[in-house]
Structure formats: structure tokens, C-alpha cells
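Reading a protein record of the kind used here takes only a little practice. An example makes this concrete, so a full record is given next.
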Amino acid sequence: MKDEETNAVMRILSDISSASYFAAPELVPLLIFKMVRISVSQGLSRKSPYSFAAYGFILSGYMGEVDNGITFGNIALNLANKLKADEVKGLIRTTNNVFLNHWRTPLHDTIADMEEGYKWALESGDNEWSSYAAQNMAYQLFVMGYPLHSLAKKLEGLDLQIEKFRQDLTLKRLRIFRQSIANLVDDMDNPDVLQGKIFDESLIGFEDISVNNKVYFHNLYFQKLFLALVFNRAEAAINYSNTTGRFLESVRGSVLYPMYHFYHALAITNSINEAKKPATHNDLKIIRKSISLLKKFEKLSPQNYTYKRLFIEAEYAQITGKYSEAKILYDEALKTASANNFLHDLALCWERGAQFFMNTKDDIRARFYIQNAYKAYQRWGADAKLKQMLKRYTILENAAKSDLEDERIVIKENQNASFIDLATVIKASSVLSGEIVLSRLLKKLMQILIENVGAQKGFFIMEKNDAQYIEAEISSDTDEEKILQSIPVAHCGLLAESIINYVYHTREVVMLDDAAQNILFANDEYIKTHKPKSILCVPLLNMEKLQGIIYLSNDLTASAFTEQRLALLKMLTGQIAISIENALFYTELENKVQQRTNELLVEKKKSDDLLRNILPEEIANELKQTGRTKPRSYETVTVMFTDFKDFTLESENLSPEELVAIVDSCFRKFDEITSFYNIEKIKTIGDAYLCVSGLPNPQDHSADNVVRAALEIIEYIQKLRMEHMEIGTSYFDIRIGIHTGPIVAGVVGNKKFAYDIWGDTVNTAARMEQNSETNKINISESTYNLVKDRFICTSRGKKYAKNKGLIEMYFVEKEILQPAEILE
């Protein structure tokens, strides 16, 4: 974009839209639409990439078009790179990760890119956006359960860095999260009150609320809600949740928007359980709505939202008396939260599950859950919460210190390990390391286990699609191996499910001398039915990632698994885990090669179809064969221009969703009509629609068909007008102009091909549209001479057209029906 005035307009619009997000958010879509329209019609400026990222935010946050929004965010970043517009890279990366990517990307995977955005903003001297990046990075780290002590240090550094930028409101918002961390770490009398060395919530009260600081009050009460949930302040959580909801629109599109629905539901269920009162109809309705929303979010990002949905469903089952269902759902929620490393919510889920088992008098499970809640809070670093738990839950007072330590445990009497046969270890490791085909690796693994550990039966369990499956099974009685049959562990009746679940959630070894006598697992259906003696269950960990679970049993002998055998197995687990990972990688690689081959074929078809969609087929084929196309002259074509009357004025009465929905539905109908009459669509420019008859094949030219298409468009717009008038909603009228003459057509540029037409005919058609009237078709004399025998037209005489002088113009009234058509 070379025009300095237009560049200045883009800079001003960019600055205004940024400020409007806080002061007048309803203006943001209109400002961004204007920026995009200028970029499309007048070329790219250095602010254009920002407008595309912001347009992506509108698509995602306001219209629910998440994938399209992400696409525009990526386009924005690519444009910034091509334009070498380093000054907007920081704000684009921040916008993409705050408003777009988190809907599809695991939250943990957005942080590195956010840090890049922060660095770009700093380096380009953009104090405003570097402050935004720092504050938004703070809350995304917080809501994904980043360890608190490390997070406190990280945010302290960000605070020192941006304090000098004088972004007062943003700095206060950052300090809300810093003080929240302090409340979780340091013991305070009122942990849900954010008042300390870092931040004092009393300095800004409700009397200070303005359009500019609503997001501040959202952040404040969102954190107070979360702290009230963690510290079991049920009624306070309800109050904070309701207040947070008042300011929810201020965080639309960000991860805080869905998080509110999650914590709001938890506040309601907690209040019901604490008060021991039945849920009201309205309570249940709100919770069901939250579950419905979480299911919607889960489809976009299972890693971020599956455990949240399961957690709320478990709570809902509990308050509606479906206790058996609640037990299963708590386990499922814990499994997915653990797998995706959301430490804070994992701890909260363990604690809520413990409260459920306390209420149902299941002391064994209650003890198990509350101890794991303590460990999860410990891993997160919530030291103040640990002190509160020791005071609140008497069940923890009686727990042994070892039960509350965050480490793997062995449920067995202590024995001294005897000599480990290193030759066996070396031989087994050598056998396992030499195999990369998964089926053969599992077969060899099961043989080694049966031969060296003293088991009658052995199983190897792996996770697929968030469920546990038996992928290998062997029995010493038959020596028969069953490999890769993918038998679901749930309700299989082959082993003790509760032990598998325990090892999965805790990553701890379980070794039982006599399973039926162990109080923690005695109620397992398999153990009650089959009364196995010895059981050994070991997690396979590689770089803290669970690769699988080994489950061994001996139904005849108590204490069959000695410390020596356990030590042997532990020495092998590292090699087993690495071999499993290598085999999975090899399998995945093979699958990806085949998948990629198939994808290339599909993508080739898509690209061919896409090329034919944006170019006439003849031109598309020429482009594919030669890599370029030659411009062509056409002696006679008929060009039609349409434009909505008073579009800018009328659009101010519509929400962004309504505006785009109406324009989209109209243009889709126009596409349908023009395709029927074999008219080539050239492009849309904002609210204008351009099409032409007579190219790429001149023999297809028909001025009659263009007029027929125009009449159908008018009929559709009038019908739409009546529908909107009946329900009292806004609508658009239209003007249409048509002219016949010569043009030149071809593809411009060598990237992002655009097929276009040029010539005086195009300009005259545009003047016909500008001089038309509401819901009228205005045609030139050259078009009139071609269609006058088949259409009733009214002469308008000569009218002045900008840069064209006086032009003879006609209104088309209707088509002259032939006798056969009248009879029909």
C-alpha cells in the first residue's frame, strides 16, 4: 500500500480497535471489517496482518467459526513475515494464542508461542502489547496448573519487566494472579481475599467500574471464585461466581470464557453438597448447560476439556443420587486430568471425589482419594492448602507420613532383596532392545516375564483413545500368547480393574502377598470372585510418560513375588519402556507413511477442486499444465454488478454474527442463481458481487440469462425483506447494474491466483449499479438492444455517470412470457 493517507487510516483504525476492546467492544467488529475491506480493495499495509488476526478473533469469538478464525490467525502471521512487519508479530502471536489457538491446541502447547509474542513485542518497542502478552501468559499458565513456586518466580520477573511501561490496568491484572499464588502458598486467614504485599483488592471498588476496566473485575472475581473452591468456601464461591458472570463478555474468546462455566458448575455442586440440601430445578438446569457447553468445547480440544466435562458429570451424578455412575465418572475424570497434567484441577477432583466417598460412608476409598488429593496439591505447590487439609480432614491426621509423600509406594510387607541375576537382566535387555516390531516385542516381553518373575498369568496394558486395553496376555499353563487383541480392561473379568486404575492414576507399584486380604482392593469384583493370591502390577515410565502397565498374578501361591523378582523387573522396566516407545514410533511411522500417501491423493483432489472453484475450469487446466495463463480478450460479454443499498449505515444496527450471516446467505443464493444460468462469478468485494456471462467460452454468452439471474436475485431479496419485516429484524435492499461490451480477463500475480476482468465495460457496469435504484435492475443501451424483445424495459433517458458523462439507461421490469409459458 503506497498511499500515505490510507496507511495512516490503517494505523489509526488499528490503534482505535485495540482501545475499543476494553472501552467499546461492540465497535471492534466494525473497525476490523473496515481494515480488512481496505486491505482487500487497496492493497496491504503493515497493519493489514493485525486486521486479519483480529478478524479471526471475530470469527472464532463471536460467530463460533473456530477453525476459520485460526486460519485467519495463521494468514496474519504469514503476511507479517512476508511484509517483514516485525512490529505486529508480537500482537499477532498474542492474539492468536489468547483468542484462537487454545480452542484446538492443548493449553500447555500455547505457552512457547506466547513467550515468542512477548519477546517480539518487547523488541519492537510495543509496550502496550508486551504488557498484554505478559498478563495473558500469566493467566494461561495459572489455569493450566503450572507449579506454583516456579510460576511465582516467573511472574515476578514479568512484573518487574512491564512495571516501567506504565500500563496500569494490565499490571494490576497481572498482580491479581501473583497474589492468588501467594494466597495458595502462604497461610492466610481469608485465602479468598486478595489483599497482601503484592496486590490489594480494596483499592478499587465497584463504584470504580467503567467500560474500560470490566476485564479487571472479571479477573479479580474469577480468581476469588477459584480460591473459594480450593479452600472449600462454598457460599463465597457462589457469590463470586455470580459476580464473575456479570463481566464474562470482557473475556469472550479467551480460555477464561469456558473456564468460567466449569468453575460456576463446581461452585453450585459444592454449595449443594456443603449445605446438604436438594438441588433446585434452576441449579440442575445451569449444570446441564455447563455440561452441554463443555461437550462442545471438548469436540474442539479433548485434552483441555474432556476431564472438565467428566468432572462436572460426576458431580451432577452425585447430587442427583446416581452414586454408581458418579464413582465411574470421578475415575474417568481423574484419568484424563492426570494424563493431560492439569495439576490444580486434578487435586480438586481427587478432593471432591473424597468428599463424595465420605458422604457415602466408603471410608477406604475416601482415605485413598483424600491422600491422593493431598499429594496432587503438594505437587502443585499449594502449601497453604496442605495445612488447611490437615486441619479439615481428620482422616489425614491418622495417615502415616509415608502415605502423604509424593512418591511411588509398594503395598507389601518389607523384605530384604536378595541377589539379582545380572546375567538375566543383560540377556533380557538385549532381547528387548533388538526388536522394533510391536507384536514381536510384546510376545518376547511376555515370555521373559513368565520365565523370570514367577507369574502364572501376565498381561500388558496400554492406553488407546482414553481407555485401557489388554494388548498382550500369556499363561504358564498353556504357554499361549495373545498379542494385540485390544481387549478393553473395563469389565473384562480377566484381572483386578481397581489395581490397574490405582497404578494408572498414581504411577505407583502394587505388590500384594494375598490380594483378598488387602483392605484397599478387597472389594474388587475380580478379587472377590477369583480370590487370586499374589499380584504384582508395575507402571512402565519413560521420561515420566506412562508407556504401559505390567500386571502379573499367581493364583496358587501367596507371596510369589519377592523383592528379588520385583528388583529384577524394576531393572528391566526402563529398557521395556524404551523398547515400547521405539516400537510405537516405528508403527506410527509406517502408518504415517501410508496415511501421508493417502492424504496426498486427497489433497491433490482438493487442490484441483479448489483451483476449479476459484478459476474457470479451462483456465485452471492451463495453469496446472503450464504454470501460467495468457490474458484473453473477449469481444462481447455481459457484466453484472450488485451492491447492497446503504450497507455501512444498516450494518451498524446488526451484530457481527447477524451481519455476516445475512451477507453469507445472500451471496450463497447469488452463487446458486448465477451457476444455474452458466454465469461466471468473478469475485465479491465487501458487499458487492461481480459476475459475467461469455467467458471463458464466448459461445456461452447470453445477456438474457444475466437479466434473468438479476430478476431472480431481486425476487430473492424482496422475499428476504418481507421475512425480516415480519419478525422486526434488519434487512438489506439491493441495486443491480448490467452492461454489455468487450473485456480482457486473466490471472494476476504468481501467488494466491486471482482471476479478474478489466476494461471500460466493467467500469460502465459499476456505474449502472451506482445509478440504479432500490431493488431495481439498471441496464445500458448495449444490453437493452440485446434483451428488448424478451423483457419489458422502461427508458430512463440519459443519466449522468461519474467519469462517463451521459449514458442511456433502462430499468428492466419483467420478462415477456411466451404463449407456452403463459399456459404453464
